[in-house]
Amino acid sequence: MIGAIIGDIAGSRFEFNNTDNFDFKLFAASCAYTDDTICTIAVADAAMNGKNYGDSLHDWCRQYPSPMGSYGCSFANWIISDNPKPYNSYGNGSAMRVAAIGWLFNTLEEVQIEAKKSALPTHNHPEGVKGAVATATAIFFARTEGKEAMLEAIKEYYSEWEEPRLGYNRFDETCQGTMPIVFGILDKATNFEEAIRYAIAVGGDSDTIGAIVGSIAEAIWGIPEQMYQNALKYLPNDMVTIVEQFYSRIKK
Ligand SMILES: [Mg+2]
């Protein structure tokens, strides 16, 4: 889960100002958490504390209405609504928020059921659900069987991956546009930090690619303790509480 948050924070300053520099500073003063972190926290809170996923997303996003980079337009309208309804989204938001689910449930079947439930309040388009289920499935396989088994399992969802080339990725906020580059990066990278650097230096929707890659990379390689501590410094206390609850639950 902190892998998603690290990717979001590191990518935050490049979302609308892309970089092709692989050696950028991961934790700069101008970095901040964005919507990807808030939604990741909301899904984790729901999965751990018996809340409805839609209610938790609505509550957390209303609590933090103006993050760096803002919310996407349709999602912002969903947050504002007092009676929010799913809007058939296939945006990559369903994939970037699902990290905790890949860890908190013990069987692949449960992970996939919960991932789908986390997508449906907003991302009820088949590609939106698929993005969430594939990401949670990747985390489950990575943490239980390792990287190669994960890459094999994920071909059921995304069979063609995109080779990461620095600065070449176009801005594409859809699941079907984002996931092929995510798995291309994870295939090529050899450790967590390298995966995060590729995720951001390819360009495009940097913070969200960072969050999705980071969530799966954590399950493959783990997170250096110093990076975990650095990321927590960017978060308000109520988010830190959820992160700490998560890691005490899964025994970091
Ligand atoms: Mg964002």
Can you describe this structure?
With 252 residues, this protein is mainly alpha-helical. Helix 7 (108-119) packs antiparallel against helix 8. The protein has a single domain (2-16, 33-250), classed as Orthogonal Bundle (ADP-ribosylglycohydrolase fold). The model has no long low-confidence stretch (mean pLDDT 97). The chain is 61% helix and 0% strand. The N and C termini lie close together (11 Å). Bound molecules: magnesium ion.
In short:
This protein has 252 residues and is mainly alpha-helical. The protein is 61% helix and 0% strand. Helix 8 packs antiparallel against helix 9 (147-154).
Structural class determined from secondary elements: mainly alpha
Q: CATH superfamily membership, which one?
A: ADP-ribosylation/Crystallin J1
How would you spell out the order of helices and strands? HHHHHHHHHHHHHH
Distance between the termini: 11 Å
Give the key terms:
binds magnesium ion, mainly alpha, ADP-ribosylglycohydrolase fold, 252 residues
Topology:
Blueprint: H1 2-11, H2 35-49, H3 53-63, H4 73-80, H5 93-96, H6 101-104, H7 108-119, H8 126-145, H9 147-154, H10 175-188, H11 192-201, H12 206-221, H13 225-232, H14 237-250
Bound molecules: magnesium ion.
The site of magnesium ion has 6 residues, from helix 2 and helix 12.
